[in-house]
Amino acid sequence: MRHTTLKITTIVFLTLLMISQSSGAQTNPDKDATDTSKPKISILGTFHFGKTGDVAAVKVDDILGKQRQKEIRQMLKKIKAYKPTKVLVEVVRHKNEAYNQKYRNYLKGEFDLGKSEIYQLGFRMAKMMNHDSIYAIDYTLSQPFGEVQEFAEKHGMGERFKSFVKSVRERAKKKSEYIANHTLMDYYRQLNTDTADRWNRSLYLQETLDYNHDTIYTGPKIAAMHYKRNLYITANVMRHAQPGERLLLIIGSGHRAVMKHFFKTRKDIDYVEVNQFLE
After folding, report:
1. pLDDT, tens only, 47-83
2. Which residues does residue 270 pair with via DSSP β-bridges, in sequence order?
């Protein structure tokens, strides 16, 4: 009798276990990733073609010249394989209509594209996909880096700060020299990698963060503001993430490094690595 009871209990247990495993498989997040109705996003990290307020900037020869224009066409043609349904650009939202007016004029042949990557990459990609609009998603936020320098000078970290700024500028110089002898596609392949993303994140999570002492959190405050700005931009982007959309976000590589993690963490949107289209 006891043997029969034990056998029945075992059967019930195994049955419940199988039901549990089956239920778990139905809610497996990996299965959600195969949902074709989920929106997708790909981020093309870029450098600024024109003027920038960055501490150090990568420089490129005449972006409007024949050779660079050819390289841009070649790169965008490859990215076209992603089949974006919307092109999102690093423009503050309240200027959305002003930039769309420029875009409409561009489509009619009444607006000459300037040096900005917003025009050269964003407008041209949207036109290539026959889109009637572009989408502004940026959110500006003051980041007083001068406070970090002041903190460093007051707390014996002046030399470290100078060394940090020098290393960033030297890196920008090397990248500029690289571009001078390579195609834009070559550089964008480097710019949109995990290695480049990690370096960009380290500027805030390692270097900037370390400028603090006792109850003074100057560095962490600046780092937090950087993340805050990118969270706001992410919120702006998600307003366009409707089912079936394939969003292409063209934004500074420093933003990509952070936002990439945001989108890969969410379960309601699929992240698509842009580098696969640059091969």
Report:
1. 999 765 555 678 888 999 999 999 999 999 999 999 9
2. 40
Q: For tokens 């699929």, what's the residue? A: 270
Mean pLDDT score of the chain: 88
Angle at 24 between CA 21 and CA 25, to 5 degrees: 90
The Cα 90–Cα 140 span in angstroms is 10
Q: Find all residues with CB under 8 Å of 247, minimum gap 6, and list them.
A: 39, 40, 41, 42, 84, 85, 86, 88, 237, 240, 241
Query: What residues does each domain of the chain span?
Result: 2-32, 39-279
* pLDDT tens track for 124-151: 999 999 999 999 999 998 888 899 999 9
80: its two tokens:
């076209």
